[in-house]
Design a protein that fits this description.
The protein has ten helices and two strands, in the order H-H-H-H-H-H-H-H-H-H-E-E. It is mainly alpha-helical. The relative contact order is 0.08. The model has no long low-confidence stretch (mean pLDDT 88). It comes from Fusobacterium animalis.
């Protein structure tokens, strides 16, 4: 939707879906006409409502520059504003649900006693560790790592004879 009405927004906020300031601006002053209708100080105030830090002036200036050169559609803004607000509300709902689920996963992982061991592995965070435990259950029920690999449905196999040695490959097996 921003591609249509304010494509330059992403030049100011690179990863706008992750930033509180960008989301706040999309709620309050999403279109170039909204931005150009305010003073620099007004835009800084909007930014500071979300940032609560001493940031703002540089971003506000970038936003004004982007709004001035915007090639976005300038008609149908009220309908677009309603659609954008609905999308932002939906995003916030999903974001809040995801945070709640991740918090519950962390609590459940803590109960297993494997949190510290699994999260000490580089690249494994709370979500990956909880998903792993959720999938395999208690790791103590396995006597070796090969059993976990088989449970996942993959088995490393090698087809060799006395004269020929093949490379090790993954053989897909059905999980039982």
């Amino acid at each position: 939707m921003l591609d249509e009405y304010f494509p330059e927004f992403e030049t100011v906020f690179k990863s706008f879906i992750k930033g509180k300031v960008a989301l706040h601006i999309l709620k309050r002053i999403p279109f170039p006409t909204d931005i150009l209708g305010l003073t620099l100080e007004d835009i800084i105030s909007v930014i500071r409502e979300a940032a609560k830090k001493s940031v703002g002036k540089k971003k506000a200036e970038e936003l004004i520059r982007a709004a001035k050169v915007s090639i976005g559609v300038k008609v149908g803004l009220e309908g677009a504003r309603i659609r954008l607000n609905n999308l932002l509300e939906e995003y916030e709902l999903y974001h809040n649900q995801l945070e709640k689920i991740e918090k519950e996963m962390a609590q459940e992982l803590e109960k297993t006693g494997y949190k510290d061991i699994l999260t000490s592995i580089p690249g494994i965070g709370i979500i990956s560790a909880a998903s792993f435990i959720g999938e395999i259950g208690d790791p103590k029920r396995f006597s070796n790592p090969q059993q976990i690999i088989r449970l996942a449905g993959y088995n490393l196999v090698e087809d060799s004879s006395g004269k020929h040695k093949s490379k090790t490959m993954i053989s897909k097996q059905i999980r039982k």
